[in-house]
Design goal:
The chain has helices spanning 51-54, 57-64, 72-80, 148-155, 173-183, 203-208, and strands spanning 2-5, 11-14, 19-22, 43-45, 67-71, 84-88, 93-96, 99-105, 111-113, 119-121, 126-132, 135-139, 160-164, 187-191, 214-215, 223-225. By secondary structure, the protein is α/β, with parallel strands linked by helices. It has one domain: 4-Layer Sandwich (Metallo-beta-lactamase, Chain A), CATH 3.60.15.10. The protein has a seven-stranded mixed sheet, with helices on one face. It has a seven-stranded mixed sheet with strand order 7-8-11-12-13-14-15. Strand 9 and strand 10 (119-121) form a beta hairpin. Helix 4 (148-155) packs parallel to helix 5 (173-183). The longest helix is centred in the last third of the chain and has 11 residues, at 173-183. The protein is globular. Residues 7-192 form the Metallo-beta-lactamase domain. This is UPF0173 metal-dependent hydrolase AFL42_04870. Pfam families: Lactamase_B_2. Keywords: Hydrolase.
């Protein structure tokens, strides 16, 4: 299995039988190396409804007939637009043919802005624990630091954690280091930084300070074999 990073919060998981995308913000994301018009995906996992996370979900899901798994209100909205969306909620888990998905807490906002400026409430934001082929990947989502991250670390044997470091909209590097201690993943990868000037950070400096697990600042398109 290969897990790769593609800028902002975009993560791709390639298993023996499925390609899974987290938060596919591709078009309009200069840091992303993927092509929304050609990328193949069987599953899209969404942490919340903000446009820089829903991204190209509509186009990718329709072209690939992909399943979209998202928080309840967001999933219902996507279903109303013709997508094959499965609703979940924080604390819930489900076994799919591609792996097990569990939604965790995240402290953030969640709304989708349509092209005409209409703002749609997206339900509660979340993190996502994906267990596939015996490995667990934790996409923490957009969040502040909160103590239940320690609980998630204690309850799960996490192989890779994708943790936001951008600050301003999410936790910054100092809080993310605490989160990494609590989550206790084998590998810690920083995400949600340098997409916009307000979230500019030094990922190499962050990973050099990671105290628990191995910090890896993945270059755009770079992956980890699990």
């Amino acid at each position: 299995m290969k897990v790769s990073y593609h800028g902002h919060s975009v993560v791709k998981v390639e298993t023996a039988n499925h390609t899974i995308l987290f938060d596919p913000f591709i078009s309009g994301n200069e840091a992303c190396d993927l092509d929304a018009n050609t990328i193949k995906a069987d599953v899209i996992l969404l942490t919340h409804a903000h446009n820089d996370h829903v991204g190209d979900t509509f186009e990718i899901a329709k072209r690939n007939d992909a399943l979209v798994v998202a928080p309840n209100e967001l999933a219902n909205y996507l279903s109303s637009k013709g997508l094959n969306a499965h609703p979940m909620h924080i604390g819930g888990s489900r076994e799919f043919d591609f792996g097990k998905v569990k939604f965790s807490q995240a402290f953030h906002g969640s709304s989708y802005t349509e092209e005409d400026g209409n703002v749609v409430y997206g339900g509660m934001p979340a993190g996502i624990l994906l267990t596939v082929e015996g490995k667990t990947i934790y996409h923490v989502g957009d969040t502040a630091l909160f103590t239940d991250l320690k609980m998630y670390g204690e309850m799960n044997d996490i192989d890779v954690a994708f943790i936001p470091i951008g600050d301003n909209f999410t936790m910054g590097p100092e809080d993310a280091l605490v989160a990494a201690d609590w989550i206790n993943a084998k590998i810690v990868v920083p995400v949600h930084y340098n997409t916009f000037p307000v979230i500019e950070q030094d990922p190499d400096d962050f990973v050099s300070k990671v105290r628990t697990g191995e910090g890896k600042a993945l270059k755009i398109g770079e992956g980890i074999e699990l």
